[in-house]
Design brief:
Elements: H1 13-18, E1 23-26, H2 31-42, E2 50-53, E3 57-59, E4 71-73, H3 79-88, E5 94-96, H4 102-114, E6 119-121, H5 128-134, E7 138-140, H6 163-173, H7 182-193, E8 197-199, H8 202-206, H9 224-229, H10 235-254, H11 257-279, H12 300-311, H13 315-322, H14 324-329, E9 347-350, E10 364-369, E11 372-374, H15 376-381
Parallel strand pairs: 1-2, 3-4, 5-6, 6-7, 7-8
Antiparallel strand pairs: 9-10, 10-11
Helix pairs in contact: 3-4, 4-5, 5-7, 11-12, 12-13
């Protein structure tokens, strides 16, 4: 769940498949490119995962500069027509973006559900409980908890912040949140009562500069797996990753002890609210938002599963969050996500049991995608060199 393809020079289907990812859901991209990518993989022109997509993210307010290629402004009175157009184009779901207000979200959900499509939402202008009431099927990232901010830090108009400013705002107060407070539980109950799933993309927060600890941060170029991958990536992509990791490490070194402590507390609370939502009976899904903030496509899912286990899911529950549960949310359980007669032959052969240790998902010997077997080495060697 929850990746972005963006542009041809950043779409490396072999990388996903080498990491054992046999199906991806793109939650915001250009229809033309996404259709072409899906065609290339389906035809066998390039090995890669099955690709499902929502097309452009629908934004009621002004589109953030730089997001125009994969985000579309929609007037509130045109939301049903926009959903119909995307449904007719063959999308697999609808993605609502940050400035979409509750009533517009409700109408979008009603039309999408009438067309048999799930709705995903990255929230700012619609709070968590409002998204549940509107009928959103899955809330993306931890923005859903924004309504829990202390009075003095609560935003009157959350849709006015850029996506990046909103992320920084969460870190400022999340360390002071009491994950066991009644208002947190009420939010869990609202989401669970509406059957709204949470895709927390913990790996996105684990890349925050500063103080998550060497065992958590996804920011180090010294990770052996990452070091092995860098020489295999196209030079432009490798250079971008190294540059972003270096920026994050420099920021971490420059942070004050107070900032590092606040970041650590916020991170611990992020894990706690994901675990609390799960323990309360909520549906957690596994997504990464790659390739944002230098999150490596495919391989970042391994880290996400480890973080979900750290948050309180069992290894089996984490695996289901990446397989069966997304298939159910997308209405595709008859096609993928389980090993059953009639389902696609998408399998991993591992050298060790991931139920015993979730880190064993990294020990891939064979990837079988739609009945065709591959080795990670073969797939990585097929990556374009420029």
């Amino acid at each position: 769940m929850h990746v972005h393809v963006y542009t041809p020079d950043r779409w490396h289907p072999e990388l996903f498949l080498a990491a054992g990812v046999t199906t991806v859901l793109d939650l915001g991209g250009q229809l033309r490119d996404l259709t072409a990518y899906r065609g290339a993989v389906t035809s066998g022109a390039r090995p890669g995962p099955r690709i499902l997509f929502t097309g452009p993210m629908l934004e009621e307010g002004e589109v953030y500069p730089g997001f125009a290629g994969f985000c579309r402004h929609v007037e509130a009175d045109r939301i049903e027509a926009e959903v119909d157009g995307l449904a007719d184009a063959g999308v697999d779901g609808i993605k609502l973006y940050v400035t979409t207000r509750p009533e517009t979200a409700r109408r979008a959900c009603a039309r999408a559900h009438a067309r048999g499509l799930p709705v995903f939402m990255h929230q700012h202008a619609t709070w968590g409980a409002e998204a549940a009431t509107a009928g959103v099927d899955s809330v993306e990232h931890l923005n859903v908890f924004g309504q829990l901010a202390p009075e003095g830090l609560r935003m009157a108009e959350p849709g006015k912040l850029t996506p990046f400013e909103y992320g920084g705002w969460l870190w400022r107060w999340f360390g002071d949140l009491d994950p066991r407070a009644d208002h947190v539980r009420r939010l869990y109950d609202a989401l669970i009562g509406a059957a709204t799933a949470l895709d927390p993309t913990l790996v996105l927060y684990a890349s925050r500069p500063g103080a998550l600890g060497d065992d958590v941060g996804d920011t180090s170029v010294d990770d052996p797996e990452r070091t092995r991958l860098l020489p295999l990536l196209p030079p432009s992509v490798a250079k971008e990753l190294v540059g972003r990791w270096a920026e994050r490490r420099a920021a971490a070194r420059g942070a004050s002890e107070a900032t590092r402590g606040r970041t650590r507390r916020a991170w611990e609370n992020m894990l706690e609210v994901v675990g609390g939502f799960h323990r309360a009976g909520g549906l957690v899904l596994a997504g990464t938002d790659c390739p944002n903030v230098a999150i490596v496509s495919g391989y970042s899912l391994h880290r996400e599963l480890e973080l979900l286990v750290r948050a309180g899911l069992s290894p089996m529950e984490a695996l289901m969050a990446a397989t069966r549960r997304p298939a159910e949310r997308l209405g595709r359980r008859d096609l993928f996500g389980t090993i059953a007669p009639g389902c696609s032959a998408d399998l991993l052969v591992l050298a060790a049991d991931p139920i015993a240790d979730i880190r064993n998902v990294r020990r891939i010997e064979r990837v079988i995608a739609r009945g065709v077997a591959h080795t990670p080495a073969e797939l990585l060697s097929a990556l374009p060199k420029s």
